[in-house]
UniProtKB/TrEMBL annotation, chain A:
Organism of provenance: Ramalina farinacea
Keyword line: Endoplasmic reticulum, Membrane, Transmembrane, Transmembrane helix
Record's subunit section: Component of the oligosaccharyltransferase (OST) complex.
Recorded topology in the membrane: Multi-pass membrane protein
Lineage of the organism: Eukaryota, Fungi, Dikarya, Ascomycota, Pezizomycotina
Originating gene: OST2
Pathway per the UniProt entry: Protein modification; protein glycosylation
Known function: Subunit of the oligosaccharyl transferase (OST) complex that catalyzes the initial transfer of a defined glycan (Glc(3)Man(9)GlcNAc(2) in eukaryotes) from the lipid carrier dolichol-pyrophosphate to an asparagine residue within an Asn-X-Ser/Thr consensus motif in nascent polypeptide chains, the first step in protein N-glycosylation. N-glycosylation occurs cotranslationally and the complex associates with the Sec61 complex at the channel-forming translocon complex that mediates protein translocation across the endoplasmic reticulum (ER). All subunits are required for a maximal enzyme activity.
Record's GO cellular component terms: oligosaccharyltransferase complex
The protein's name in its UniProt record: Dolichyl-diphosphooligosaccharide--protein glycosyltransferase subunit OST2
Compositionally biased region (Low complexity): 8-46
TrEMBL record, chain B:
Role of this protein: Catalytic subunit of the oligosaccharyl transferase (OST) complex that catalyzes the initial transfer of a defined glycan (Glc(3)Man(9)GlcNAc(2) in eukaryotes) from the lipid carrier dolichol-pyrophosphate to an asparagine residue within an Asn-X-Ser/Thr consensus motif in nascent polypeptide chains, the first step in protein N-glycosylation. N-glycosylation occurs cotranslationally and the complex associates with the Sec61 complex at the channel-forming translocon complex that mediates protein translocation across the endoplasmic reticulum (ER).
Gene name of the record: STT3
Catalytic activity: a di-trans,poly-cis-dolichyl diphosphooligosaccharide + L-asparaginyl-[protein] = N(4)-(oligosaccharide-(1->4)-N-acetyl-beta-D-glucosaminyl-(1->4)-N-acetyl-beta-D-glucosaminyl)-L-asparaginyl-[protein] + a di-trans,poly-cis-dolichyl diphosphate + H(+)
Name of the top EC class for this enzyme: transferase
Family affiliation: Belongs to the STT3 family.
Cofactor(s) in the UniProt record: Mn(2+); Mg(2+)
Matching InterPro entries: Oligo_trans_STT3 (IPR003674), STT3-PglB_core (IPR048999), STT3_N (IPR048307)
Top-level taxon in the UniProt lineage: Eukaryota
Protein name, as recorded: Dolichyl-diphosphooligosaccharide--protein glycosyltransferase subunit STT3
Compositional bias annotation for Basic residues: 735-752
GO cellular component: oligosaccharyltransferase complex
Keywords on record: Endoplasmic reticulum, Glycoprotein, Glycosyltransferase, Magnesium, Manganese, Membrane, Metal-binding, Transferase, Transmembrane, Transmembrane helix
Pathway: Protein modification; protein glycosylation
Length: 156, 752
């Protein structure tokens, strides 16, 4: 819901004001990211600025590993969406196969998201004592193995 | 002094070891007690499978052990539901059979060959020990007190509410399902607490096992999402919750779809939609949280709430829309009967006819839970006091299962674990406060650990609740109150044990295949009519002989007599059952063609009139009438079985429809001969029977058991010279033909 709404508003705003070129907009908030409060108070009016701010913060603060995970997750979303579109367009005849393929992407996405959350340094307090990064990865592997076992078993 | 000598064992690391060892010993003892208290029926009767459904499970297990897993999976059973047959492999929950099959083979590998029957009989007691252990684990997660878990285990071990379904020989799905239920909940709590995908995956695995074992898995499917939903609504969303729930849902749904009987249900039926919806919600919330981390802003809090609300309503609306348009299967009848207790009676008589689907009578709660029923609210209150994530779970579980247990007798089983957990928490809090021998000293920091914990608990417990206890309370000082409270509780607990043993021994340990009665001199008399009759069938009828009986006895006939049946306790085909009901409740002239069409060779009925056995077919007869009336309202009419004054009678005043029904005739055929003329009496219904007994023309009596509980009739073949059976019988008796002609004439007149 949130991204959809913001996209709509951004398209409406793109028509009216002259758009600054994207690299400059990325650079300026990235440099001014430490001075967050003033930008927030000023840019609360347009969601477009918020989006830019979000993107710049993301590129600036996210570690490389996490970005890798995010790419994987994006890939999974694309694959899942493709399967779903296929199911809608071409019918769901081997329903078992569709289901297990789709649930494989969803499940893998969710497990990767879990790994991402657990390794995110900002969540240190939440998982701090109990789950180290290695443990999180081991959990991820265990979950994936079980997931794909079920998928292969279900695919018919 | 003994205390001084023991001191090294109670402090430091060795103290911890000692306590761990003690705990282990206590748990083993509890498991032993749990198993032992379920063996009454084996000792009193013998190692035998009980009741009805277990006979099918037993038969399926034997099939599994004999033919292997794959042919069990593809098992098409042509010996039930004649002539339809049943795709048994695809329509059962295989968990129970596979479990006992695995135990059987494991013991074989260990070169300890045990008869599969004994494994089946003792499976439920064995798993009850595990259930006690699982409830120890889950309660230890809830409470810091070391005694709470042990108390919960002890309660779980001997509570009649759970024993009712897990005595030795009651080889039913619930035997392993309750263990799986409690253990899945434990794993869930663990995964919510740790936020670990490993625990989530384990939860999913055990959830999958539970799905393969019992239809009650839907309870978990709805309870966990509800827990998550409530936590999110309380503003308690955390990454841990995301990890736990997503990993459980993604894996658990796939795991549940592996069971053929469940199949696509998790994405089709409404019962599973809440889990799916909450899964979407969690993804959404996690996404919003992620954005909020990137852009810290006050507005996100309000945005979040608005978002949750809109998405929830939109998805609920979509769900309703999809259900209405028929994409998602509507709620099943059993589910409706959970919300509206009158629903089943009106719409699905077959569900209402099952005694365990009736609403619970209130004394049953006290009967099954005794002391725990008043400790239970206290425990739930304690959960409100602490109200961490896991306590929210207990509260939700308590509320839901209390409701469900009130609606349906058999769901008392899902209430029992939470009652045990909650009351153990309540009791342990009280005991921890009162059982400490030393006097507490005011500053809690300088106390010994147990002492300090207890006093802190008390302080937290009473904080802000009463004005007089606003200032921190550190414990109990006087020995008098300590001793009185502790001794009272001990007496209560002992009474509880007494009650449990009494209930188990008197109410729940009867196999209902073998009946016991007390003779006037006090000795026990075993009534073994069922097995006598089934054995007669096994010995004296051809292997393909089809037996018609009311569906209650279908599984037993299949299991004990090994003969094909028309209907059995797997009530999947209402029309077929109604056909049997119609044959039983119609006149002979109507019933005979039905019997012929279904290749029926023998008809088996249960008759308790001689012995005073109330669970017989005449008492169930109205359900047969109702169910068949649901299909053929023109031909069968419930009202015509009642007298003008609305009474259900079997004596002289019984209605003609009643007297002419096949069931009535079969029950009382030849019954007069047992008594002096005109003295025949039905001891169940306490009424005197008509002086002239009913006549049967299309059936002949084949077998009647010792106490007349089971009567078996053979369906006559067509007459050799083409007469109808009534005239053939009349001819045999030497009557003139005109008598039948008269009867015919009378009937013609009546129809005009």
């Amino acid at each position: 819901m949130a991204p959809k709404r913001s996209q709509i508003s951004s398209t409406t705003t793109t028509g009216v004001p002259p758009i600054p070129s994207s690299p400059t907009t990325i650079h300026t908030p990235a440099s001014s990211s430490p001075s967050q409060p003033p930008s927030k108070s000023s840019s609360a009016t347009t969601t477009r600025d918020v989006l830019h701010d979000l993107w710049s913060r993301y590129t600036a603060t996210t570690p490389q590993r996490t970005k890798l995970l995010d790419t994987f997750m994006a890939f999974l979303v694309v694959v899942g969406a493709l399967q779903f579109v296929y199911c809608v367009v071409a019918g769901n005849y081997p329903f078992n196969a569709f289901l297990s393929g789709f649930s494989a992407t969803v499940g893998q996405f969710v497990l990767t998201a879990s790994l991402r959350i657990q390794t995110n340094p900002e969540n240190e307090g939440e998982f701090g004592g109990t789950i180290s990064h290695e443990r999180a990865f081991a959990d991820f592997v265990l979950g994936s193995v079980i997931l794909h076992f079920f998928c292969v078993n279900f695919i018919n | 002094m003994a205390v001084e000598a023991l001191r090294p064992f109670l402090q430091g690391t060795s103290g911890r070891n000692t306590r761990g060892l003690l705990r282990l010993i206590i748990l083993c003892t509890i498991a032993g007690a749990a198993v032992a208290s379920r063996l009454f029926s084996v000792i009193r009767f013998e190692s035998i499978i009980h009741e009805f459904d277990p006979w099918f499970n037993f038969r399926a297990t034997k099939y599994l052990v004999q033919h292997g897993f794959y042919s069990f999976w593809d098992w098409f059973d042509d010996r039930t539901w004649h002539p339809l047959g049943r795709v048994t492999g695809g329509t059962l929950y295989p968990g129970l059979m596979v479990t006992s099959g695995a135990i059987y083979h494991a013991l074989r590998i260990l070169s300890m060959p045990v008869d599969i029957r004994n494994i089946c009989v003792l499976l439920a007691p064995g798993f009850s020990g595990l259930t006690a252990f699982a409830s120890y684990l889950i309660t230890s997660e809830m409470s810091t007190s070391p005694s709470a878990g042990l108390l919960a285990a002890a309660f779980m071990g001997i509570t009649p509410g759970y024993i009712s379904r897990s005595v030795a020989g009651s080889y039913d799905n619930e035997a392993i399902a309750i263990f799986l239920l409690v253990f899945t909940f434990f794993l869930w709590i663990k995964s919510v607490k740790n936020g670990s995908a490993m625990w989530g995956a384990l939860t999913a695995l055990f959830y999958g096992y539970m799905v393969s074992a019992w239809g009650g898995y839907v309870f978990i499917t709805n309870l966990l999402p509800l827990h998550v939903f409530v936590l999110i609504c309380m503003g308690r969303y955390s990454p841990r919750l995301y990890v736990a729930y997503s990993s459980w849902f993604a894996l658990g749904t796939l795991a549940s779809m592996q069971v053929p009987f469940v199949g696509f249900l998790p994405i089709r039926s409404s019962e599973h939609m809440s889990a799916l919806g909450v899964f979407g919600l969690v993804q959404l919330v996690a996404f919003v949280e992620f954005i909020r981390q990137q852009v810290p802003s006050r507005q996100f809090q309000t945005l979040l709430r608005g978002l949750i609300f809109t998405v929830f309503t939109v998805s609920l609306g979509g769900l309703v829309l999809l259900t209405v348009t028929g994409v998602i299967a509507p709620w099943s009848g059993r589910f409706y009967s959970l919300w509206d207790t009158g629903y089943a009676k009106i719409h699905i008589p077959i569900i209402a006819s099952v005694s365990e689907h009736q609403p619970t009578a209130w004394p049953a709660f006290f009967f099954d839970l005794n002391l725990l029923i008043w400790l239970f609210p206290a425990g739930v209150y304690m959960c409100f006091q602490k109200l961490k994530d896991e306590h929210v779970f207990v509260v939700i579980y308590a509320v839901l299962s209390s409701y469900f247990a009130g609606v349906m007798v058999r769901l008392m089983l899902t209430l029992t674990p939470v009652v045990c957990i909650a009351s153990a928490m309540a009791l342990s809090t009280v005991l921890d406060a009162y059982i400490v021998a030393e006097n507490p000293s005011p500053p809690p920091q300088q106390n010994g650990d147990a002492n300090g914990d207890a006093s802190k608990d008390i302080a937290n417990f009473f904080k802000n609740s009463l004005r007089s206890t606003r200032k921190p309370v550190y414990g109990i000082y006087t020995y008098l109150s300590k001793v009185s409270i502790v001794s009272t509780l001990t007496v209560y607990l002992l009474l509880f044990v007494l009650h449990c043993t009494w209930v188990t021994s008197n109410a729940y340990s009867s196999p209902s295949v073998v009946l016991a009665s007390k003779l006037p001199d006090g000795s026990t008399h075993i009534i073994d009519d069922y097995r006598e009759a089934y054995y007669w069938l096994r010995q004296n009828t051809p292997e393909k002989a089809k037996i018609m009986s009311w569906w209650d006895y279908g599984y037993q006939i299949g299991g004990m007599a090994d003969r094909p049946t028309l209907v059995d306790n797997n009530t999947w085909n209402n029309t077929h059952i109604a056909t049997v009901g119609k044959a039983m409740s119609s006149r002979e002239e109507v019933s005979y063609p039905i019997l012929r069409q279904h290749d029926v060779d023998y008809v088996l009925i249960v008759f308790g009139g001689l012995l005073g056995y109330s669970g017989d077919d005449i008492n169930k007869f109205l359900w047969m009438v109702r169910i068949s009336e649901g299909i053929w309202p023109d031909e069968v009419n419930e009202r015509s079985f009642f007298t003008a004054r609305g009474e259900y009678r079997v004596d002289d005043e019984a209605t003609p429809t009643m007297k002419n029904s096949l069931m009535y005739k079969m029950s009382y055929y030849n019954y007069n001969n047992l008594f002096p003329a005109g003295q025949a009496q039905d001891r169940v219904r306490g009424s005197k029977l008509p002086a002239v007994g009913p006549e049967l023309s299309t059936l002949e009596e084949a077998f009647t058991s010792e106490n007349w509980i089971i009567r078996i009739y053979k369906v006559k073949d067509l007459d050799n010279v083409g007469r109808d059976h009534a005239s053939a019988v009349a001819f045999e008796k030497g009557n003139k033909k005109k008598k039948t002609a008269k009867r015919r004439g009378a009937r013609v007149l009546r129809t005009e």
